[in-house]
Design goal:
3-stranded antiparallel beta sheet, 3 domains, 11 helices, about 15% strand, 5-stranded antiparallel beta sheet, single chain, Alpha-Beta Plaits, elongated, SH3 type barrels
Length: about 350
């Protein structure tokens, strides 16, 4: 009987510790991740804090075990070994993606809405999570890459200040380069490219390979701008009676030497162009995500400024600022809530 009483007294602190830890973790989870309107980027630091709290809670329970001090130390050492093992083998586990997400969180190689190319895939970033990153491709499809994959492969990010748009074509030796280069530059300028320049890439057996390049500052229109450049190149060369056709084809056809193969110039389009650009359809989710992300960031900056103004204001002005603060906070919560519903859909 005395032994049972002694055992019960020894178990009381242990059970009490378990209850406190469980209640504390439940409350922490509700406080940190209870708001469903939180964005993925905002969840990341909260998830890391919660992970640390789980580890601390586990160690606290181990300390409260009703065993001898040597056994308790062995249990704590076992927990440390398990954690070390998980970290050591993180290259093939979920922990690897968490660690990669933390690395990208601090290095910030790209933002939501940026164009990236990795392992042959190209698209705009729509989501940045703790475990993976989602992009929207030129086919409007969504592809999710694990964060460990992104940091282990070369990642190309299109600069927001602009990117180089290029087009290559081959022309015969019978057309002098001094005649070709001004026409290619003219085509680039008509396409809205800045600082266009021409390069001679190759002197082939039957043709010269040219490349026309220029800076596109409006990177959201990369796809349509490249297509426009191709069209303008054809128009400029054909208008100057320079045919873009294989020299091999020219040698095989039985036509007079003074006859050029040129398409009939169109006088007008059969139907007007649709409003907008192809990028509006292709990268719709990425564009929406970037717009909402920038809007929320701007509103959060205004919210922080209002907090400063409230502390400095007095009387009616303070009440006015507090009302503005509440309205702005409600707007931010509504935007984040709409984003979460959109993601779930």
């Amino acid at each position: 009987m005395d032994e049972l009483l002694a055992l019960g007294k020894a178990l009381v602190p242990f059970i009490f510790t378990i209850l406190i830890v469980v209640l504390f973790l439940i409350a922490s989870h509700k406080v940190l991740l209870g708001n469903k309107s939180l964005q993925q980027e905002a969840k990341l630091p909260r998830q890391l804090i919660l992970l640390v709290l789980y580890i601390v809670g586990l160690i606290g329970i181990a300390i409260a075990l009703p065993v001898t001090e040597s056994t308790r130390n062995q249990v704590i050492s076992l927990i440390g070994i398990l954690l070390s093992g998980v970290i050591a083998f993180s290259s093939t586990t979920i922990v690897a993606n968490v660690m990669a997400g933390i690395v990208m969180r601090f290095t910030m190689p790209f933002h939501i809405g940026d164009f990236i190319r990795v392992d042959g895939f190209f698209g705009r970033v729509t989501e940045k999570g703790l475990f993976d990153t989602e992009i929207q491709t030129e086919q409007r499809d969504l592809i999710a890459f694990t964060n460990s994959f992104l940091i282990s492969h070369p990642l190309q990010v299109v600069r927001s200040s602009g990117t180089i748009i290029s087009a290559s074509l081959s022309l015969g030796y019978d057309v002098h380069h001094a005649r070709v280069e001004p026409l290619l530059i003219k085509a680039a300028e008509q396409s809205g490219l800045e600082g266009p320049f021409v390069q001679v890439l190759e002197l082939g057996d039957h043709a010269i390979t040219y490349r026309i390049s220029g800076l596109l500052t409006e990177i959201k229109s990369m796809i349509s701008s490249r297509s426009t450049l191709y069209v303008n190149i054809m128009d400029c060369l054909h208008d100057d009676n320079i045919e873009i056709v294989s020299p091999g084809f020219m040698n095989q056809r039985k036509l007079p030497d003074d006859l050029s193969v040129l398409p009939v110039k169109a006088t007008s389009r059969k139907k007007p162009l649709a409003e907008g650009t192809p990028e509006d359809v292709i990268f719709d989710k990425a564009e929406e995500a970037q717009t909402k992300d920038r809007t929320v960031k701007d509103l959060l900056e205004q919210l922080a400024q209002l907090e400063i103004d409230i502390k400095a204001a007095e009387g009616d002005r303070k009440a006015q600022k507090q009302a503005e603060f509440a309205a702005l906070k409600e707007t931010i919560d509504e935007l984040q809530s709409k984003k979460v519903k959109s993601d779930e859909t």
